[in-house]
Design a protein that fits this description.
mainly alpha; 0% strand
Length: 98
């Protein structure tokens, strides 16, 4: 079988174009993956920093609220005791004896 030089050149050129495009696409995809990983690492670091700051802020607020709630509990207990003293002991119905 005889293949002309033109057909052989076309086949070799087509294979070269397919290989070049495939290699270029693979390299482009690898570049995109590296960029996404770099952005993901930076974003992960920022999220971790914000998480630590938010946790510290919530803990600080929790301590403040706990202190305020304890103060209200103490004041309420003191108020209950004061009202009980003001009202005095419970009066019982005692009928005078014969």
């Amino acid at each position: 079988m005889f293949v002309s030089a033109e057909i052989l050149a076309i086949v070799v050129s087509a294979v070269g174009i397919v290989l070049t495009l495939g290699t270029t696409m693979l390299a482009g995809f690898a570049w995109c993956v590296r960029r996404i990983d770099a952005v993901d690492q930076r974003l992960g670091a920022r999220i971790d920093e914000l998480d630590h700051r938010l946790t510290a802020r919530i803990d600080k607020l929790d301590h403040r609220l706990t202190a305020r709630i304890d103060t209200v509990i103490d004041d309420t207990t003191a108020l209950k005791i004061a009202v009980a003293r003001w009202e005095g002991p419970v009066r019982h119905l005692v009928l005078p004896g014969h």
